[in-house]
Structures are given as C-alpha cells and as structure tokens.
Design brief:
heterodimer; A: alpha+beta; five-stranded antiparallel β-sheet; about 20% strand; B: alpha+beta; seven-stranded antiparallel β-sheet; 4 helices
C-alpha cells in the first residue's frame, strides 16, 4: 500500500511544482501533498519513519509541514524516493534549509540540503578518493546523480 | 556548591604545556600545544540532530561558521594534547551553558586526518575563551561554495575515529 501510494503520487505530481506549472500547479501539488500526508498518518509508523520525523522536526520548529514551503518541498522529496531506500535522518539548518543524511557502512556518507526554491546541495563520500558534490534543482524528480549517490551510500545499487 | 564547582574546575584544568613551535600547524609559531600535529582534537556535539540514530556523526556536526571579524569559515574544536577526559567533559558541560546547552557527545579526530582533507587545525584567535580552544580553518570562503564545504564536512564526519558520550568511561 505504501509503495503504491508513493509511486502513484510521485508520478502524478511530477512537474506540478515547476515554474511553468504556475500557481495552479502549485495549488494542486499542495492539495495532493496534504492528501498524501493524511494517508501517511494513517499507516503504520514503522513504514513512514521519515514522514513522522519530518512532522516531528516541523513540530520542534513550530511550523506546519504543509504551511511551510521548505517542509512541503521536503515532504514531496521524500515521496519521490524509491521505497527500497533507507529513510534519511532529517534536520533543519540555520539557513532554513532541510538537511537529509544517509550513512552506510563505516565511512560512506551522503548529505544534502533542500532550499525552498528547490535548490539541492549535496555531497557524497564513498571513499577518501571517491567523492562527489554539487548543486542541482529538485523539480519533483530526484536528479539522477543524487539518486545514484544515495543508492551507492545505502548499498542498494 | 559554587565553591566546589570552582575547585573542581581548578583541579580538572589541563597542566599548561610549554609554548613551542608546532609543526604542521598554521598561525602562531608560539602557541599552546593543546592543538598540535600528531594528536587528536574533539568536536563537541550539542544537538541530537547532529547525530544519526546509531550515534554516527552527520556532516552537519562539522558545519563551519563565518567568523564575523576575520571573514573566514571556522569550526570550533577542543585540542586534546595533554588534556584529561575530566577536563574535556568539564569544557563540554560548561562552554555553552549560558545557552542552556551541554555537550551530548565528543567526536574525536586526528589532526593529521584533518590536514589530509586539506584543512588546518590551529589555536583559536586571541583571546580564546578556554586554553584548549582551537579552530579548523581553510574552508572555501565563497558564501556560494556550500557544496564544497559540505564535501569537506562529509569527509570529516567519515574520518571521526571515536565518538564518546559523557556517561562513557
């Protein structure tokens, strides 16, 4: 059920947050994110750890996930991740960006931050001489390079 | 009670090392040797969200701050050369007490590993708020170079060789 909901909504929402979709697209994305949020709250906590953590983080910061642009974007990002990936650990940076972290093995690290306008900054460390970092745009689809990094760090590729 | 705390602080203070030149360190050539090549430094963690659920450090535990006067990015550390565990935890408990924060973990790194990453450990600019205070410098200074700094943060997080909790002996 969880994976179906994620895949279905992930593809349906693709592009709705992009500038060409305009205010209508953003409105639809907001409604859909709210609906999916309600669905997520109705399922077992263990299968929605990242969503629960996102809501916990929002609660700590005194905001609502759907009312805050960065949190809403982070929720959409979590929805667009394949369900076989481990949940990221979340935090809010001083500059208002949401940080997502994965660690694999003893020294594999993937860290990324998401800004309200979709700017995604990431750094991936697989070994001392296997490091990548960069900036990309999240537009309801995880950039392929970022996805590869997460999969390699998590050991699912 | 205050008297006992002061007494405890006096006895747990690290013995002052002789001033000497420090190979491998930038900055002053006559600096305290608490931060020196070939030894460890500790990064205190004050926020639970700087650690993964399994206790491993996140990259954000090494997020550098822009020094308002020097206009350079720095990460505060505690030099560990000749510093006892008691003194280290005394600092961890007290250095941010005004903000109501106590260290929940100490991430230990070798200064040589920091140098391998391309960063430098050096004593904190004068006047340091505590003698063992050091800083990691050498971060890309362009405010827009966030991903470059994130890359170095991830590298430091991966190279932490020991994570201690205050209740560990």
């Amino acid at each position: 059920m969880t994976s179906l909901a994620i895949s279905f909504c992930g593809s349906m929402l693709a592009g709705t947050g992009s500038p060409p979709a305009g205010d209508t697209g953003k409105h639809i994305a907001r409604i859909a994110a709210g609906a999916v949020g309600d669905l997520k709250q109705g399922i077992a906590a263990g299968s929605s750890a990242a969503f629960n953590d996102l809501h916990a983080l929002a609660h700590e910061e005194g905001v609502s996930v759907n009312a805050n642009a960065t949190f809403a974007l982070a929720q959409r990002f979590l929805l667009s991740l394949p369900h076989n990936l481990p949940s990221p650990a979340l935090a809010l940076d001083d500059d208002g960006e949401i940080a997502l972290d994965w660690r694999g093995g003893t020294d594999r690290v993937m860290t990324m931050t998401l800004r309200a306008d979709g700017r995604l900054t990431y750094a991936c460390r697989l070994a001392p001489l296997r490091r990548r970092h960069g900036t990309d745009l999240y537009n309801d689809e995880v950039p392929p390079e970022v996805m590869r990094c997460i999969q390699q760090v998590a050991g699912t590729s | 009670m205050k008297f006992l705390r002061r007494l405890c602080a006096v006895f747990s203070r690290s013995p002052a090392p002789p001033e000497r030149s420090i190979p491998g360190l930038s900055g002053s050539t006559l600096a305290p040797t608490y931060v020196r090549g070939g030894s460890d430094v500790a990064r205190f963690v004050f926020e639970a969200r700087d650690l993964m659920a399994d206790g491993k450090p996140k990259s954000r535990a090494f997020k550098p701050d822009l020094h308002p006067d020097l206009r350079r990015f720095e990460v505060s550390i505690c030099g560990l050369f000749g510093v006892s565990d008691e003194r280290m935890w005394y600092l961890g408990r007290t250095i941010r007490l005004k903000e109501g924060k106590r260290a929940i973990a100490s991430l230990n790194l070798a200064t040589d590993h920091v140098a391998e990453v391309g960063l430098q450990c050096e004593p904190a600019p004068d006047p340091p708020d505590f003698e063992e205070h050091g800083v990691v410098v050498g971060w890309p200074s362009d405010p827009d170079a966030k991903s470059s700094r994130l890359d170095l943060q991830a590298e430091l997080a991966a190279r932490v060789h020991q994570t201690f909790r205050p209740d560990q002996k």
